Amino acid sequence: LCPIIVSTTPIDGQKPGTSGLRKKVKEFMQENYLENFVQSTFDAVKASGTDVTKGSLVIGGDGRYFNDKAIQTIIKMGVANGVKRFWIGQDGLLSTPAVSAVIRERGPGWQSAFGAFILTASHNPGGPDEDFGIKYNGEHGQPAPEKVTDEIYANTCSIKSYKICKDFPTIDVSIPGTTNVKADDGSSEVNVEVISATDNHVELLKSIFDFPAIKALLDRKDFTMVYDTMYGVNGPYAKKVFVEELGQPEEICMNATPMDDFNGGHADPNLTYAKELVAKMGLDRNGMKIDVPAGSKIPDFGAAADGDGDRNMILGKQFFVSPSDSLAVIVANADAIPFFRTQGGLKGVARSMPTSGAVDLVAKDLNYSLFETPTGWKYFGNLMDSKELFGGEDYTPFICGEESFGTGSNHVREKDGIWAVLAWLQILAVANPDATQPLTTVEDIVTAHWRKYGRNYYSRWDFEGVDKVKATAMIDKMRSDAEANTGKTVGKYKIAKADDFTYVDPVDGSVSKNQGIRFLMEDGSRIIFRLSGTAGSGATVRMYIEQYEPEKIDMVASEALGDLIRIALDLCDINGFLGTEEPTVIT
Ligand code: VG1
Ligand code: CO
């Protein structure tokens, strides 16, 4: 245990984005790159008042290339920075929601965790030529708030040295168990425990849902499902829940062995990248039904997860559930889930700004407090942990979600892919109490929801890998024109307000500016533009389109939104700035 101080110099571009720092593996493997960021994080975390010598530091990741090496480096640096106790996911694996669960659920008193490093670039491709990522979560399991990530970035700009114990032994993370290392003079001891990647999270899920009821649904002869974890980290969790706990055949779990390059794929659960599942469910990449040979067996329920297991896509038999609708349906049916029902029902609901207003209609109807936050999960944590907002209660039943296939609740402080899958199965189980009756399907549940609340037609267009300077110029132009655009008529729409979204956190008053250009139409339709904060290189423009229809619920989304999409492309002049109107992904 002999810390040494290594001198270094700042490296450009280490600003954490929407969810941590994501760059090419090659960049991360440069001399001092990872070390600079990790030291800057330790310094920011200590400055925010965390005593890293008490409690445990959790480390785990989505298993992508460089995961294993990064873990050993972080342990050695952690020891040099005063950390005495580590919990490492077995094989270096921990899904993002599982990290949050480990922090919250594991170990009483001084043994509890003070924070975690999560090694993931989520849905970005992995492998030696692809992306790596790292982020820090705090003692409630929540992603570091903006004031901490700002401080981390500031530190990376002025760093002069980092601390590391080069002689600390390399830990074999393949075997559960504890390694104790004593300082030569016996004055201190460090202990590194390799923990089960799945136990804490799966136990938590079992306490939230009614597993026997879900099992009864899955056991029905007329109900089949598949869960595609896309070679990401969620495979072992899926197997544990569906095969071990719920007694289902292995075939339910597709692509369930984690690989360090996600088998060369793009572990992103949407209609474009989850190709294999989408075809199996009888859909095309626009979410439309395809003709299938008579007699072919399509599962009644399909789901997919991303690389780090926090995202979910929900599909019925030849039916796509948009993430914004999925959030609204889960909120409308929250009482089906014991976790909420037994705590006196849901109290709070939150969505990110670009997410459709479908959930707003439910929150209003059922009298839940509603919050609109910037994109990214870090803004939800403060709301869930607030005693002030909800009349001094310690425990606030809360659901939140994003249009980007992320849904979750206050059981952890991250979005949780498998939680969303189980939430849907629980809702289906409650909708189908009698196995002798015909099945009430995913499509039945969603269309009944639209009949009751109306339908928020929604689409997101992504323009990936575009020129950063030009894309920034395009956004800047819309920001400076916002006032002038307010009041204008475009086609059959009148722009009631154009602005760049600013969020004031209702709990601590912190202000987050420049969170997305909004065109809010008089009839409630919306057009939104943002630059992605997770792109590893280049830039990604996101264009979000929403139009509410109280009665016409059976149109094709692309047709319902046709006019508004044309208007959006003109308002931003993407053709002028970037020379294209063709998105790379539509969801
Ligand atoms: C994207 C999504 C956002 C999500 C974030 C992290 O961010 O739009 O909703 O919270 O990814 O998810 P951006 O800035 O690229 O739009 V994950 O599963 O990539 O950690
Ligand atoms: Co993710």
Automatic annotation (TrEMBL):
Name the reaction it catalyses: alpha-D-glucose 1-phosphate = alpha-D-glucose 6-phosphate
> GO cellular component terms?
cytosol
Q: Where would I find the Alpha-D-phosphohexomutase alpha/beta/alpha domain in this sequence?
A: 14-161, 201-315, 325-453
Which keywords fit this entry according to its UniProt record? Isomerase, Magnesium, Metal-binding, Nucleotidyltransferase, Phosphoprotein, Transferase
The question of whether Zinc is a record keyword is answered with: no
Q: Which GO terms describe its molecular function?
A: magnesium ion binding; phosphoglucomutase activity; UTP:glucose-1-phosphate uridylyltransferase activity
Name the cofactor(s) required for activity, per the record. Answer: Mg(2+)
Q: Where is the signal peptide?
A: none
Source species, domain of life: Eukaryota
Q: Which GO terms describe its biological process?
A: carbohydrate metabolic process; UDP-alpha-D-glucose metabolic process
* The protein's Enzyme Commission number: 5.4.2.2
> Per the similarity annotation, which family is this?
Belongs to the phosphohexose mutase family. Belongs to the UDPGP type 1 family.
Report what the protein is called.
Answer: Phosphoglucomutase
What is the originating organism of this protein?
A: Fistulifera solaris
- From the entire protein, which fragment is shown? 473 to 1059 of 1059
